[in-house]
Specification:
Elements: H1 4-12, H2 14-25, E1 29-30, H3 31-41, H4 45-59, E2 65-69, E3 72-75, H5 82-93, H6 101-120, H7 129-153, H8 158-171, E4 174-177, E5 183-185, E6 191-193, E7 204-209, E8 211-215, E9 221-225, E10 227-231
Parallel strand pairs: 6-10
Antiparallel strand pairs: 1-3, 2-3, 4-8, 5-7, 7-10, 8-9
Helix pairs in contact: 1-2, 2-3, 2-4, 3-4, 5-6
Biased composition (Basic and acidic residues): 180-192
Region (Disordered): 175-201
Protein name: Nucleotide exchange factor GrpE
Length: 232
């Protein structure tokens, strides 16, 4: 029975076709049976034999294929450690990749599958980047609120609390962009207009709320919060 999809797959990437036969068989399958299925699908025997001879040594490296005995191959549902797949992938990438795209893809898929299992299960489960950012912001806010609550309980004045918050900002390499009540020339990079105001660049404005810039490891500052301004 002809399998046009399998034949096309063989013509495009012989290794991927051999792997597909092993995968969908589900049980241990012999070399002769693998080649016979592709030949029966419509591929030329000479081509099947040629590609099998060329690619056969690589099948034992596949992270999802086991060889229970010589000349017999079986698809495995278990995954090897992502670290092992990454090392093999790195070594393979350094060689000529002609005809080996299917093996590179197999290692890549295995790494992705293994990492996905770690990310989605257990007490050490990872969270997405967006969730991580939200959690970090929530943690920061919780620490600030808890600290301010402690200062208030100790009878600290609002000025003392502001001084403490300002010092914490400095410790995080944050520098203020203007002060409340100050006059400034409008700069879209540094300022955010209040309400419906649309000041022009360079126009005189008054700072309603200070902004902040962050200085990381490099010399450049990054504006993390623009100062709120209104037309003066």
């Amino acid at each position: 029975m002809r399998d046009r999809v399998l034949v096309k797959q063989f013509k495009d990437d012989a290794g991927l076709a051999f792997i597909e036969v092993i995968r969908r068989t589900g049980d241990p399958v012999r070399t002769q049976e693998i080649k016979a299925e592709i030949i029966e699908a419509g591929a030329a025997k000479a081509e099947v034999d040629r590609w099998w001879k060329k690619l056969q040594p690589l099948f034992k490296e596949h992270p999802r294929i086991t060889c229970p005995r010589p000349g017999v191959y079986e698809w495995s549902l278990s995954t090897e450690l992502s670290h092992d797949s990454l090392e093999k992938l790195s070594a393979l990438a350094g060689k000529r990749s002609a005809g080996r795209a299917w093996l590179v893809e197999a290692f890549t898929d295995n790494i992705a599958d293994t990492l996905a299992q770690v990310e989605k299960s257990g007490s050490g489960a990872q969270i997405s980047w967006s969730q991580q950012r939200e959690r970090e912001k929530a943690t920061l806010l919780a620490e600030v609120v808890a600290s301010v609550d402690a200062l208030t309980s100790d009878g600290s004045s609002s000025a003392s609390i502001l001084e403490w918050l300002t010092q914490q900002a400095r410790n995080q390499r944050l520098t203020p962009l203007g002060r409340s009540g100050e006059k400034a020339e409008f700069d879209r990079e540094l300022h955010e207009p209040v309400g419906a105001a649309r000041p022009r660049p360079g126009q005189a404005v008054r700072v309603v709320r200070a902004g902040y810039a962050w200085s990381g490891a490099g010399p450049e500052r990054v504006v993390v919060v623009r100062a709120l301004v209104e037309e003066s």
